[in-house]
Amino acid sequence: FIFVVLVTLLSLTTYACSPKPPTPTVTPQPAAPRATVSSPAPASQDSWTQIVAAAKKEGSITPYSFIFTGNFATIVAHSFEQRYGIKFSPVIGTGTLIMERIRSEQVAGKYIADTFDSAASLVATAKIDGLTVNIGPLPELDNKDKWRADPRLDPEGHFIGTYVITTTIYVNTNLVKPGEEPKSYKDLLDPKWKGKIIEASPVTSPSVNRVYLALKKAGLADDSFWQQLARQEPRVTTTVREAASALARGEAYIYPTGQSVTMTPFILEGAPLKPVSVAEGVIVSVGTPVAIIKNAPHPNAARVLLNWVISPEGQKIYQENLGVIPLHKDVPETTNPAARVNLDKVLPINLADELEIARIQRAGTVAQLLGVQR
What we know:
Layout: H1 2-17, H2 45-58, E1 60-61, E2 63-65, H3 70-84, E3 87-88, E4 91-92, H4 95-108, E5 115-117, H5 120-128, E6 132-133, E7 159-160, E8 163-172, E9 198-200, H6 206-217, H7 223-230, E10 235-237, H8 240-248, E11 254-259, H9 260-268, E12 273-276, E13 282-287, E14 290-293, H10 299-309, H11 312-322, E15 346-348, H12 351-363, H13 365-370
Parallel strand pairs: 1-3, 2-4, 2-5, 9-10, 13-15
Antiparallel strand pairs: 5-14, 6-14, 7-14, 8-11, 8-12, 8-13
Helix pairs in contact: 2-10, 3-11, 5-12, 6-12
């Protein structure tokens, strides 16, 4: 027993006095490279050339879009792909549904959307909710004297507008004869229009909320007006396109909050629709802003798309196919039958208004006044 104890003590002493082996050094491995939106430093030709090269290497872009539909989407895809060799694959839907999808993807860490376009209030809300990033400098934005209206709606540089739009009352000319059109929003309360009005839901569409705010700001209509309009029993559709389509088919006489960008395709196809110059004035805003989504898988391609959209090439395509008033002065303004209204009296909508419109829509203020279920 004594012998075993002595041997054990000797072994422990030897181990304690022997030099310890060096602790292995772990060399951290570099993270996998990830494409990012370039820093918003002043643009240069060299840096933009590098961005375009990186965009071509990314090879594709997935816009989450309200506007890139039908033949317009086909034309945009062809032109953009021909210009840059970048595949254009939009995902289409209403603004609120698209934004919820973006939120879900961000939470799940499944990043698909590169850009998001919709009504200004929804894009502004996406920024507030942390879903967008600074777009950085774009060469076209340096042309400060080229704009009918400045596309830079957001002072923090998260999104840009893409064209000028008007909002007013539209009528079906087969049902509403010349001289019988409402001359004012208050004329909509005439009993003869009961059951003959169509409207897009204020829950899913900001257009009604935009008119609500514009009239309220100008002191032209308070909440009681919308409560009285609800007693006219308007038919309420989910989207603005559904409202425009129903008006074109003669399922309603009047659409009180029609937007030129929505109505143009129907009018160009020969639908019996026309805008009305109302006494309160025409509501004017910069339409369908576009933003780059946080964690976009193709951020360089997204920047190239935004720059192309406000370039003369992109603006010409927007004008020719949507009938919108172009932002860029190098694209001649042509007469748009859907926007042919008297612009002597205008109710302008600015960015602060768009943020308030988003708040009104989220709160369900107009939906409650009209009795629309959220």
